[in-house]
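User
Take a look at the entry that follows and flag anything odd:
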Amino acid sequence: MNYSARLFVALQWLLPKHLLSDVVGWLTRVEGGILTQLAIRAFVRLYGVDMGDAASPATDSYASFNAFFTRALRDGARPVDDAPDSFVSPADGTLSELGTLHPDRLVQAKGIDYTLLELFDGDATLAARFEGGSFATIYLAPNNYHRVHMPWAATARVLRYVPGELFSVNAVTARGVPGLFCRNERTITVFESGPHWLALIMVGALNVGSIELVLPTARPARNRPHNNQPAHISQALEGPTLARGAEFGRFNMGSTVIVTASRGCLAWNEDARAGLPVRMGAVLGKVLTVDQDRR
């Protein structure tokens, strides 16, 4: 890492990350009229956001910055591959890492890894379901679409909310903060599909106002609850069953999604590799066995 990268990482240890994220979260929800519109237009120009994919392409149609940031897509903008055995990308972004768990370790960055047990916040039962399985980490940049969808049809069985830090999750920080995704706040949702298990882990980051899930039994996980005392949440779920491509949640500002699948579930595409840009609905791999009733 060069000097500027080291300084960037070092500053994050010192910054009041939750306070800054609270302030940003509040500002993004302010309906500021012309000031909000100017901020949105500046953001679109700065990051090259493609508004042609949006359900409402006009920037002045959004009353707040967060409404713009979590915008829906127009119909057909992200076709979801419909082959019975397709495992699709849950989000727009960049594949930071992907591969096989050996037997329980995930790659964070070159020379840095972490364990399933750490990722699942010490829950040995959940971690054991994915030993020897597959994983993919997708980084959502500021210009990406920020809703997360199901990569495969499955039924929700467990939800965990884990409070923690709010380091940035970009490539520079991933190379400089060991165990980054296990330090940061995150929601862990474990799904069942036939003989297989799937987990979607949404990782909070600096300036992420909150993570919202569609699960009807789950309250949204916010970086700082109103009582200002983050608490672990763990609950068993009896569904719902979500179809492949169905919306699962969203980031109110950007972050990272980690997908894990149980052993014997997936074969990644040969061209799937770290650094590859991906779009929601595009095929990342093939499910090795398919329960046709859960398509």
